[in-house]
Amino acid sequence: MAKLPLLSVSLNLLLLFHGCLARSSNFEQFQNECQINKLESIEPVTRVKSEAGFTEWWNPNSQQLMCAAVAVLRETVEPQGLVLPSFSNTNQLVHIIKGSGVLGMILPGCPATFQDSQHQGRRQDQHQKIQRFREGDVIVLPAGVPHWFYNDANQPFVTVAFLHLGNSVNQLDRNPRKFHLAGNPEEEQKKLQRLQQQKQGITESEQEEEEEKHKQCTNSLCFNPEYLAQAFNVDEDVIRKIQEQGKSGTIIRVKNLQFIEPPRVQHEEGRRGSMGGDNGVYCAMKMKENIAEPELADIFNPQAGRITTLNSFKLPLLSHLGMSAERGVLFNKGGLVPQWSDAHRIFYMVKGRARFQVVNQNGESVFDDYVEQGQLLTVPQNFAFMKRAGNEGAEWVSFYTNDNAKNTPMAGVGSYMQGVPEEVVAAAYQISREEAREVKFNNQNNFFFTSSSRPQPRAEEA
């Protein structure tokens, strides 16, 4: 009988060994992706046109995005454009760069609480709640949650989505995947697959051969029509219409799209209405927050700029996503003091331009250049950086791979330097105590510096 416990222990040790081996292999696969000697500001490499807009992807094979385990896409949606339902293999945050519209999100297990009572003589429609969004909103899209967008305004809206591929909810690989439930995503899928296959060393002819095998069907409803008809309890003709891909892409034009919506004031005030039970709490969780309004700023300097943060304290759902965000504004020639973060930080320049300097753990400069409007720059975890706006100022949004990322400034109020005793500063940097005092206390700003804050050189003593 004593052999059974021994066998159990042996099996457990074997499983533990293989688990450690798998984790070690996974670590080795990604450990060199952050051996960065040079960063560069990057722009999208693919652009896919649909009927009512277009989708752009940054190269997921870019070393800086692979280091952060993040993928980024930008969508521009014209008036009356409907972004067809899809979901992703990982959590994502979507920032509204410009415009406004409507978002529908289908949360599993949640009831269809929006119900139509206007139509007589036929079955009433019902669906899950919809939300209105505007410029500056950050929208939380959990992995596997279907969603759609509609532009009912008279100008295009632009979104930038950050997909956190390194999050534990993504149990596939570090390739971004969008699972489309409608439309024809063939061109977008082809371009993404080609980027992924280039990373794997697959030749162009092999790519075309692989695409030929799979070109018959491109969305997630490509099952046997007979079985689908039984599943939905409809005629097969209806299923065949659903499976027709069309040529409009993933953003189609729909005039005067109708859906159930409360009166606007009630909708805005009651968007966090309560439901009973634990599931009701999940279904009623707040999914978006605005970070562009000046009055929402967490840090403000009238000469330099402002910063608004969004973390899991403000939006609790972010604690499950492992992500947070920040939107900042620098006025004319205002700057951010040198600092580092405990998470990867992905900057997207919304307006203007700013000069960034980034330094690695060896004190080597890995980036010293301008980031222009529409460009992206990743600052890896603990890499120190500083930036200064150009003459026209700068506005950016940054996303962190941590739900409550912490930034440590090197200068100014609350900085690393102010936390070190004066004599330690003098000894560490081989300067006088008076100079150490100046280094510690001359900048009385919090995170910012201005061109006018630099003191005049002292007159030479006679």
UniProtKB/TrEMBL annotation:
> Which SUPFAM superfamilies does the protein's record reference?
RmlC-like cupins
SMART domains (UniProt xref)? Cupin_1
Entry keywords, A to Z: Disulfide bond, Seed storage protein, Signal, Storage protein
- Could you tell me which residue ranges the Cupin type-1 domain spans? 40-240, 289-437
Q: Does the keyword RNA-binding apply?
A: no
Task: Spell out the residue ranges making up region: Disordered.
Answer: 176-213
> Which PANTHER family does UniProt cross-reference here?
12S SEED STORAGE PROTEIN CRB, OS03G0336100 PROTEIN-RELATED
Q: Which family does it belong to?
A: Belongs to the 11S seed storage protein (globulins) family.
Its recorded name reads 11-S seed storage protein, plant
Organism, per UniProt?
Corchorus capsularis
